[in-house]
Design brief:
heterodimer; A: 198 residues; alpha+beta; 2 domains; 3-stranded antiparallel beta sheet; two-stranded antiparallel ribbon; 7 strands; B: 199 residues; mainly alpha; Butyryl-CoA Dehydrogenase, subunit A, domain 3; 7 helices
């Protein structure tokens, strides 16, 4: 039954076909995406490494620097989370930490855990658990929304003082693009590679 | 057009393995994930989450989201007055974007989820393709409503210029973030295959 693809949205059954280039097969009944064209594990690994480096930059450098009448203040990713905590909003702070640091960090670590052995044709330890954990975390990673938040914050600040984007904002931008691109890769290739490696 | 139910097969939602339908509840033999059958049980949970989110939508919009002090002026902004302020500051494009993300998206999600729940509960046969597209649109836009929560926390962190200016989060932040999380959980607990179940 490996030649079949079932639509997750309406249950329609399709026969799989090889897709050219980077394209997506869609359900004939409800038009939802069915599966993406297959990709190399090594290109997924490349994008994951870029995303990890960008995540490090996003955490290490300020997102925004503000200067007004001799005073200067900076906002890092961590400071944005702690700001809510300091104003007695620990639940909001925990939510921010989950969506901006924990979910992307754990997802990237698990992704590398899977991609490095698979690119060497070795089955990663705990493969099934890791794949399930990534699926649980994925909806809670909101880096791309945060990127738009940085842009809006800069515009709101421009009336108040001199606000400048920092290297952290560059890191967030690259990471958002890299993670979006990883989402358009075919996940099925990981399962097939893991079964071959066994 | 055959469906998985017609052929007696089931597809794992996680690893997409297609296999013969097991009798009763089972886990996927390849990835170990749970194999949910087309289930109407999720509809009840989805209703509960939509109602909770709708209730919190009121304080999220009525209470102030952000208090700003720029000596000697103090202002307190709700979501809507913050958008008006952004509009008058000259950036109507961004004001429109925030309006879409903070006001239109949560409201649309509540209305569309309510509509999908009513039609699925009644086993309606009205345009299933359109309803599936509505559901996919909800999945795609839902998390963008978190935008204003991120903006407030960034501004709070960066605007700490002593007596000169400061920003603090208002009481609407928690209910607003809760609306976003609850509607995300609600759309995740709705099984779109219930749209297509034959009457």
């Amino acid at each position: 039954m490996t030649e079949l693809a079932v639509c997750a949205y309406c249950g329609a059954v399709h026969r799989r076909a090889d897709l050219p280039g980077r394209t997506t097969a869609r359900c004939v009944r409800c038009d939802a995406p069915l599966y993406h064209s297959t990709t190399e594990v090594s290109s997924m690994l490349g994008v994951a490494v870029i995303a990890t480096a960008a995540f490090a930059i996003a955490n290490a450098f300020p997102l925004i620097t503000l200067t007004a009448s001799g005073h200067q203040s900076r906002a890092t990713l961590w400071a944005a989370i702690m700001a809510s905590y300091n104003y007695r909003l620990p639940v909001v702070a925990a939510g921010l930490a989950l969506t901006l640091i924990v979910a992307p960090l754990v997802e990237l670590a698990l992704l590398l855990w899977v991609l490095v052995p698979l690119s060497l044709r070795v089955r990663p330890p705990g493969f099934r658990f890791v794949m399930r954990a990534m699926a649980v975390l994925r909806p809670w990673r909101l880096v791309e929304v945060f990127l738009l938040g940085v842009i809006i914050a800069i515009v709101k600040l421009s009336g108040l003082a001199t606000a400048v984007l920092g290297w952290g904002a560059f890191g967030i931008t690259v990471m958002a693009i890299a993670m979006a691109s990883l989402g358009s890769f075919d996940q099925g290739v990981l399962w097939r590679r893991a079964e071959e490696a066994r | 057009m055959k469906t998985a139910a017609d052929l007696g097969v089931i597809s794992c939602p996680l690893c997409e393995l297609v296999m013969r339908s097991p009798d009763g509840d089972a886990d996927c033999p390849r990835c170990g994930g749970f194999l949910p059958r087309v289930s109407r049980r999720g509809l009840t949970r989805c209703w509960a989450l939509v109602i909770a989110a709708a209730a919190l939508y009121v304080p999220a919009n009525v209470l102030p989201m952000m208090n700003t002090e720029q000596f000697p002026i103090r202002r307190s902004d709700t979501i809507l007055s913050g958008i008006k302020f952004l509009w008058s500051e000259g950036s109507w494009e961004l004001a429109a974007l925030v309006f879409a993300a903070s006001i239109l998206v949560p409201l649309t999600k509540l209305i569309v989820l309510g509509f999908l729940l009513v039609t699925s509960s009644r086993r309606s046969t009205w345009r299933p393709r359109v309803r599936t597209k509505l559901y996919r649109a909800l999945e795609a836009i839902g998390h963008w409503s978190m935008l204003d929560v991120f903006v407030v926390s960034l501004l709070t962190a960066v605007v700490q210029l002593g007596r000169f200016a400061s920003v603090e989060p208002g009481p609407a932040v928690l209910p607003f973030a809760s609306v976003v999380v609850l509607t995300m959980l609600a759309s995740a607990s709705f099984d779109p295959r219930t749209i297509w179940v034959k009457s």
